[in-house]
Amino acid sequence: MVNIHQYWVYIMSNYTRTVLYIGVTNDLYRRYCEHKNGTIKGFTHKYKCNSLVYYEEYNNINDAIAREKELKGWKREKKEALIAKSNPLKTDLAEELEWI
User: Fold this and answer.
1) What pTM was computed for the model?
2) CB of 52 within 8 A of CB of 94?
3) What is the reported pLDDT for 2?
């Protein structure tokens, strides 16, 4: 039996899309709900980052963590370009995933 794990690197933003938060999780839906509902106090709660604007899926946690660190090291312009490739309108992807 093969046990395949799933991990996501994701970017959340606020309503005006002026703040970006990059994170990694093993349950994107749960983590999205935590951000959306403000249940986790910290940066995303303070800056109201509750819209999922980008995500990537990985099967290996080490790959996901490495990618998260890579993205966090990028300048904002490069992050914006990455988001624009798959989500040019910066819509909340939870709608596309039918979470809302």
Assistant:
1) 0.93
2) yes
3) 58
